[in-house]
Amino acid sequence: MTQRRTSIPIRIGRVTVGGNAPVVVQSMTKTDTRDILATINQIQELEECGCEIVRVAVPDKEAVEAIPAIKREASLPLIADIHFDYRLALAALQAGIDGLRINPGNIRDREQTAKIVAAAREKEIPIRIGVNAGSLPVNFEPDAPLAERMVNMALEQTRFMENLNFNLIKVSLKAFDVPTTVQAYQMIADKIPYPLHLGITEAGLPRAGAIRSAIGLGILLYQGIGDTIRVSLSAHPCEEVFVAYEILKTLGLRQRGATLVSCPSCGRAEVDIVALAEAVDKHLQKITNPIKVAVMGCVVNGPGEATDADVGIACGKGKGAIFRKGKVVSTVKEENFLEALKTEIDSLSLDWRGLARW
Ligand code: SF4
Question: Using only C-alpha atoms, what is the Rg of the chain?
C-alpha cells in the first residue's frame, strides 16, 4: 500500500480530518432537516453505528433555523450542505455549523463566494469544495475530459479561496463513474495540500453501491489518497457507515466491529454453512470490538482459518471444533454450533481490552 498522501489537517468540530488523523467516516442525514426531532434521532443513530461527522441538507431558511436546535442535541460535528443560495451558507455559519459544503458548480458568483469565505474565515470554519460531475456548468471547459473539468473546477475555486487568505479547505470530486472519479482524485492529489473527501456519488442501492464504492474508494485509499470518506447509498445512512468501515477495515486503515471470515460452502460442506454464517453475522452486528470470527464448513480449510481467527468454528459431520486464539476450546454437537459460537464471541468481546488499532 502506498504511503498516505500528506495533507494539511483541518478540524470539523472536535474531529480532525487530514494530516495523520485516521480516515474519517462520515454520512448524511436523509430526514427533512426542518424536522428537528427526526434529524436529531437519525444523527443519534448514526453516532451509534460509528459515524464521525454528519452532513445535513440546508435547502432553505427554515432548515437553517433548525440548525441551533439540532446542534444542541447532536454530539456529532455538523456540516451544512449548501447549493445555489450563498445566504444560506452565511446563515448556517451564524447558526453555529461546524463545516460547510458548497458546490462551486451551483454557486458561481465570485462576490457571493467571497462573502461565504470571509464569514468562514472569521469563524474559522472549514469549507469543502464539493465538485460534482452532474452539476458542472455546461460551458465550463466543455471540450475537456470530465475528470479534467472536475479537477480544474476545484482548482479554480481553491485558488480563489487561497487568494482570499483562506486555507481551511477540503476538496471532493465525485462522479458516478468510478474510473472518472479515481482519475480526478489522482490528478488533484499532488496539486493541492488540502484533505480530500472521497466518494462515489449516487452509487445506488446497497448491493451494487457498496461494490462501486469499494472499488473506487479502495483504489484511492490503497494509493494513499483520501482523508475522509462518505459512501452514498439509497439506503438508511447507517448502511453507508457500515460499508465505509468495511472498506477501511479491508485495507487495514481502521478497525471497528467484528470481521466475519466464512467459507463459501461447497459439496464438501457437512452443514448448512450459509445459514450458520448469516446467523453469526447477525449476532456480530452488536459487537463493536475488532474481533475476527471464522465460520468454516469442513476440515479442508476450516482448521487453518479458524486457527487464524480470534474465535471460530470448523464444522464436521455432526460435530465441530470451536477455536479460540488458535486453540481448540471445545467440541460441540451440530445442534449447538450457533449457541456455542455466540457464547465464545460474547465472552471474547467482554475480554477484549485496549487492542483497538486505528
Ligand atoms: Fe468447501 Fe470446506 Fe472450503 Fe467450505 S472450507 S468451501 S466446505 S472445502
Answer: 23
Ligand 1 contact via 321 beta carbon (within 6 Å): no
Pocket lining: 298 vs ligand 1, CB cutoff 6 Å:
yes
Average pLDDT (45-61) is: 97
Ligand 1 test: best mutation among 272, 274, 276, 301, most atoms within 8 Å of CB?
Answer: 301
Pocket test for ligand 1, best of 272, 273, 274, 276 (most atoms within 8 A of CB): 273
CATH of 10-250, one of 3.40.50.1820, 3.30.870.10, 3.60.40.10, 3.20.20.20: 3.20.20.20
Decide if pLDDT at 358 tops 50.
no
Query: Binning pLDDT at 50, 70 and 90, where does residue 298 land?
Result: confident
pLDDT in tens, 204-225: 999 999 999 999 999 999 999 9
Q: Please indicate whether residue 267, judged by its CB atom, sits closer than 6 Å to ligand 1.
A: no
Residue 349's nearest CA partner among 305, 286, 307 is: 286
How many other CB atoms sit within 10 Å of the CB of residue 22? 17
Q: Where are the domains of the chain?
A: 10-250, 259-357
The pLDDT value recorded for residue 325 is 82
User: Which cell goes with 183?
Assistant: 482519475
Q: What is the CATH number of domain 259-357?
A: 3.30.413.10
State if residue 296 touches ligand 1 by the CB under 6 angstroms criterion: yes
Q: Which residue has the cell 447507517?
A: 238
Please identify, by atom number, the ligand 1 atom nearest to the C-alpha of residue 301.
5
Instruction: Report, as an integer, the average pLDDT of 62-89.
Output: 97
CA–CA dist 147, 174 (Å, integer): 9
